[in-house]
Amino acid sequence: MRDLAARIDLHAVSLPPAERRVAEIVLADPALAAFTTVAELGRRARTSGATVVRLAHRLGYEGWVDLQAEARARIDQRLRPATERIREHDVHDVLAATAAREAENVHRTLEAVDRPAFDRAVGLLADRKRVVRVLAGAAQDGVGTFLSDALDLLRAGIVRIGGSAVAVTTQLAHSEPGDVLVAIDLRRYERWVLDAAEVTATNGGLVIALTDSRLSPLARHAEVSFTVTAEGAGPFDSHVGTLALANAIATGVATRLRRPATHRLDRVEAAWRAAGALTDG
Question: What one-character-per-residue DSSP string does 25-83 give?
Fold first, then answer.
């Protein structure tokens, strides 16, 4: 059976605006959903209690009480900070628990990928006429670095965005309509990442989002959005599923640009050999 977050994600694109606002609150604050009244949740979403009940039925629950019972029993692990998770019960077999959880993260992340959306993202990133900028929240910085480095080995025009607010603003000031921004961040989102995505979309750029829900504020500005599963076996979010998706995207671009990418990789490899930069010993 799908959990609450998965059900919301499944119906995200078809939710009416009022129900969407309710769903956004449920995802952002599951503890509130678990213990508040229908009337209070409706008020917070600027709608009615009836809308809250309609959302519950749309998601496949018998009613709000049924949805709320699941929220109480299973507040989504991804939504709580590490300072709360570490106070929970110990993981006795850390290796086995981690192996099972990470395998599930990869499977659920890649299984959720919409094929036409994936082809669209790969096509945008393989278009060598477009400048591609990659940014990521601090926790996802390693995934952002991997993706930007991989794309840079395949084609020119890849820019890794980071640093201070001044540096990020300066880098975005050079963007043109039609440029692509790959934005990677999970709840709890960093404001500068959301701001960069909004600025890019407002200026005619195209945003590809790797985030944790189609109702994510990052997905709101995206031309293409992918949902990753990031539940950790311990107190910290996992980035294995996100990395697997980034690797799939890079592989797709490499396949699309096989001939020019091969030439570019040959030049890089020759430069490494000439400089003696790498060794097998």
Answer: HHHH-HHHHHHS-HHHHHHHTTS-HHHHHHHHHHTT-SSHHHHHHHHHH---GGGS-HH
Residue 198: strand, helix, or coil: helix
Domain boundaries, the chain: 4-75, 104-273
Which pLDDT tens digit goes with each residue over 2-35? 578 888 888 888 999 999 999 988 887 777 788 7
Cα gap 245→177, rounded to integer Å: 26
Q: How far is CA 106 from the centre of its chain?
A: 13
| Burial of 156 per CB tally in 10 Å (0-12, 13-18, 19+) | exposed
Q: Domain spanning 104-273: which CATH class is it, in words?
A: alpha beta
Query: pLDDT tens for residues 208-252?
Result: 999 988 888 898 899 999 999 988 888 888 999 999 999 999 999
CB atoms within 10 A of CB 246: 28
Whose tokens are 């995505």? That residue is 197
Distance between CA atoms of residues 28 and 190, nearest Å: 14
Yes or no: say if 141 and 163 are a contact pair by the CB < 8 Å rule: no
CATH architecture of 4-75: Orthogonal Bundle (1.10)
Give dist(CA 215, CA 7) in Å, integer: 12
pTM of the model: 0.77
User: What is the distance between the alpha carbons of residues 216 and 193, in angstroms, rounded to a whole number?
Assistant: 12
Min mean pLDDT across 112-116, 126-130, 161-165 is at 161-165
